[in-house]
Amino acid sequence: MKYFILTLFVLLSNLVKAQDNRFYDDAFLTIDNMLTNKQPYSFKTAVLNVEEAYYQGKLDTAEVSRKIKFMANFAKKIVQNRDLTYEEKDKAAVSKYAAIFSVICQKTPIIVNSDTLEYKAFSYDFNDVFGHKDLSNLFVSKLVNTQKGNCNSLPYLYKILAEEIGADANLALAPNHIYIKHNIKSIGWYNTELTSGIFPQDAWLMASGFVHLDAIQNGVYMKALTNRESLALCLVDLANAYNRSFPKNDGTFPLRCALRALEVHPYLITALILKAETYKAQYQKLDSADSKAKELVTLLNKEYKHIHEVGYRNMPEGMYLEWLLSLKTERKKYEDVRLTH
User: pTM for the complete prediction?
Assistant: First the structure.
């Protein structure tokens, strides 16, 4: 009887685990289907699938989508009612970029009947910036529900809103950081920094001291990511969420995500680090004399060497926050004046 109960318990535990994994498998399949053109591309769908997997299907995606739709419609209204002093052929696109920036970064008056209300801008949340305590602090769903976000959720929301109103937006990476890059006819490429609400020069990115020239040349940092490469970024997010949900996993699923992401963008630094860290976690579970352990050490050393060679340098979290704050304290030094004329 005891054996039967134990067997039943094991079977039920495995069933629950399989159901938990299903959300992650479904999210991976959704993103992979977009990459193989088996279903329409949608950055919003990819992002919310990752978050829903973490919440095990309990995220109210309909409510999150409703709030995103409201912001998208608000951006459209701004485009309709504001005429930019910009006369290049891409004025329609630039008007959309400016509208999304206003929705996220600027207090905007709204006339409702005879009353004038003030739309509240999003703010930077300095609580648990890296999601160490709670991974959901990095989520778009958390951002739209609280209007507080960080360098992960804010640029993700910007890209989502851009696609909702028929505009393009390129994510770009810096050490521990994500921002937006646009290319317009008047000045070419420029940066949009949503955590501070300004348009910084590349000099600000270089000022961190952790952007190696090799990293720029290899597209590790400061590269305008394509839509496909942004989906690869979501695969890394999915793996990180899985590791948080199942800290004792065997590494199979995270490696699957990392390898698929690297097929899309071979120099995606978050995927390269995920791959190396997964090998490290696998190695730490084995006896050092095990042949598999020796194989993993070889792989691990190879990965770390490659990561260094492509230009990655680890930026301490404290230094990152100081660098981020430098945009406000030294705004005049780093602001791209081409966008203020």
Answer: 0.92
